[in-house]
């Protein structure tokens, strides 16, 4: 039985709060605060309709640390679940430290003026959380999050060491729009327009964005082009598995998405530096995000499946030589919408955020300091994935990937 405070009221938050309200034996008292209270109220209304349970709502600017400290002190939760944007990670961590409460998020801190996707700023908080006897768990979404736990599960149960790792993220859903992103457009476009980076022989290898691609036949989706990208879990996976020779991340994009993005990039609409317009400074990408469809509105029209997983090759635990395993989850957009009113990209992030929170508030995962998912026992988390809507499968492949 525990009290939680969730920050942010987008698609991911909506799924997480619905799932928490379906598990009141773990989350007995749920509070939701965000910049726009109306969005919190809409989630609370939907939760009431779906589960019959109440969610208390508040308006907060999470970048205002004193206001956050007041809110946390008033509610006295055992955990603050940050499902706002990466820009708010550090102010929310500061507020947690001041109010003496543990912290969880799904995406690493981003400075507003640079697309970096690095853990260094949050790892620098380790000693402060440790000294305060508090825990901060970073990246409890799907990727990062489940992909990190999948990898560590393989390393616990199948492979002694991992030589190569490929993370394959496919969204085979169709939302019927010309161009829309499935999670926050600003963060999504910053991520895909950044140079690709993968880990090879102890160093980062950089290639231009969206240049290296492979075709892969995804179960429950079909063949798709997957592009090499940088993704933040590569940093923690390489740190906690120093034996890895090569770790790569691939994401699928349709031709229409690539064409739209290329045009937007060529005309300067994805820039994150300020531009003077009619005497006012605007950030082109923020303006673009404001005119694109909101991810939380895509649920009703999105059809198809997501398929996200990891292929790892390494020395088998049982001493039988080199083996390759593929571990993945397939999630239906329609089923996710029916259960929570949100499409599968929000669902596959919001459910692991709920599970990570459950691990922490029940003391199944514990520690003083700042932790990544790779540092925790994968088994109880994997069990909850099966029970709460993200079942996974593991199979042995004939050999390492050929791409
Ligand atoms: P949305 O843009 O739909 O929602 C973000 C929410 O945060 C909005 O409600 C927004 O408020 C709120 N917010 C923004 N700024 C502030 C602020 N200063 N104070 C309080 N609230 C604020 O995003 P998503 O739900 O799609 O994504 C949420 C998070 O999940 C992001 O950090 C994203 O990077 C991460 N993510 C992680 C994934 C993973 O697998 N690990 C995958 C997908 C997403 P308002 O309503 O006023 O705009």
Automatic annotation (TrEMBL):
Residues 4-137 form the Saccharopine dehydrogenase NADP binding domain. This is Saccharopine dehydrogenase family protein. Gene3D superfamilies: Dihydrodipicolinate Reductase, domain 2, NAD(P)-binding Rossmann-like Domain. Residues 141-390 form the Saccharopine dehydrogenase-like C-terminal domain. It comes from the Bacteria. It holds the Pfam family Sacchrp_dh_NADP. InterPro entries: NAD(P)-bd_dom_sf, Sacchrp_dh-like_C, Sacchrp_dh_NADP-bd.
């Amino acid at each position: 039985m525990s009290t939680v405070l969730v920050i942010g009221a987008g698609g991911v938050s909506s799924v997480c709060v619905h799932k928490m309200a379906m598990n009141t034996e773990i989350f007995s008292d749920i509070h939701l605060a965000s910049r726009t209270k109306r969005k919190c109220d809409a989630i609370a209304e939907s939760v009431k309709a779906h589960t019959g349970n109440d969610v208390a709502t508040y308006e907060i600017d999470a970048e205002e640390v004193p206001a956050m400290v007041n809110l946390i002190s008033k509610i006295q939760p055992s955990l603050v679940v940050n499902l706002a944007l990466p820009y708010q990670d550090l102010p929310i961590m500061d507020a947690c430290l001041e109010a003496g409460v543990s912290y969880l998020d799904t995406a690493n801190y981003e400075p507003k003026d640079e697309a970096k996707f690095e853990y260094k700023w949050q790892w620098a908080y380790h000693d402060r959380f440790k000294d305060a006897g508090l825990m901060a768990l970073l990246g409890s979404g799907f990727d990062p999050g489940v992909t990190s736990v999948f990898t560590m599960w393989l390393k616990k149960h199948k492979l002694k060491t991992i030589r190569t790792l490929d993370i394959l993220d496919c969204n085979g859903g169709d939302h019927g729009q010309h161009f829309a992103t499935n999670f926050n457009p600003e963060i999504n476009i910053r991520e895909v327009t950044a140079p690709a980076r993968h880990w090879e022989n102890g160093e980062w290898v950089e290639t231009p964005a969206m240049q290296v691609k492979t075709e892969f036949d995804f179960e429950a989706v079909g063949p798709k082009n997957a592009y090499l990208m940088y993704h933040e879990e590569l940093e923690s996976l390489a740190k906690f598995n120093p034996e890895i020779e090569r770790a790569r991340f691939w994401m699928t994009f349709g031709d229409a998405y690539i064409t739209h993005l290329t045009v937007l990039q060529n005309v300067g609409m994805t820039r994150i530096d300020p531009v003077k317009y009619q005497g006012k400074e605007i950030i082109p990408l923020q303006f673009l995000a404001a005119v694109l469809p909101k991810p939380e509105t895509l649920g009703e029209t999105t059809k198809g499946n997501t398929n996200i997983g990891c292929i790892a090759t390494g020395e088998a635990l049982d001493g039988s030589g080199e083996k390759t395993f593929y571990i993945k989850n397939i999630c239906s957009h329609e089923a996710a919408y029916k259960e929570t009113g949100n499409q599968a990209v929000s669902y596959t992030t919001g459910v692991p955020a709920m599970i990570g929170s459950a691990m922490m508030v029940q003391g199944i995962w514990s520690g003083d300091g700042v932790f990544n998912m790779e540092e925790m026992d994968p088994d109880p988390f994997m069990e909850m994935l099966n029970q709460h809507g993200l079942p996974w499968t593991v199979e042995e492949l004939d050999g390492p990937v050929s791409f």
